[in-house]
Design goal:
119 residues, 4-stranded antiparallel β-sheet, 11 strands
C-alpha cells in the first residue's frame, strides 16, 4: 500500500503563486510516475504535470510556462510551483503516484487539496 499526503493549497488572488507538495510513503518498491491532476466542478479530471521514473516531465498546455514540477527522490516527494495563477486554475488538485507495491502496480491518489484563485 502507498499513502499520499498533500499540502499547500489555499486561496490566492489572480497573478499570485502557490506551492503544492505531495509525499508518498508505505511499501514502495518502485515509483513509475508521480505528479498532479486537477478537477474543477462539473469538469473531468485533467493532467496538470507529471514526472516519469526516467525524469521526463509532462505538462498540460494550459499551465506551461507558469507551473513547474520538481521532485525529491530521496523523500518520494513531488512539488508543484504554480505562478501567475488564473481563476481558471481553480480546482481540487490531486496527487497521483503510479507505483509498484507488494507485487502490484497501481495508480494511487491523494485526497486532494483545494486551490482557489479569486479576487
Amino acid at each position: 500500500q502507498v499513502q499520499l499526503v498533500e499540502s499547500g493549497g489555499g486561496l490566492v488572488q489572480p497573478g499570485g503563486s502557490l506551492r503544492l507538495s505531495c509525499a508518498a510513503s508505505g511499501s514502495i518498491f518502485r515509483i513509475n510516475a508521480m505528479g498532479w491532476y486537477r478537477q474543477a466542478p462539473g469538469k473531468q479530471r485533467e493532467l496538470v504535470a507529471t514526472f516519469t521514473s526516467g525524469g521526463t516531465t509532462n505538462y498540460a498546455d494550459s499551465v506551461k510556462g507558469r507551473f513547474t514540477i520538481s521532485r525529491d527522490n530521496a523523500k518520494n516527494t513531488v512539488f508543484l510551483q504554480m505562478n501567475s495563477l488564473k481563476p481558471e486554475d481553480t480546482a481540487v488538485y490531486l496527487c497521483m503516484c503510479n507505483a509498484r507495491s507488494l507485487g502490484t502496480t497501481y495508480n494511487y491518489w491523494g485526497q486532494g487539496t483545494q486551490v482557489t484563485v479569486s479576487s
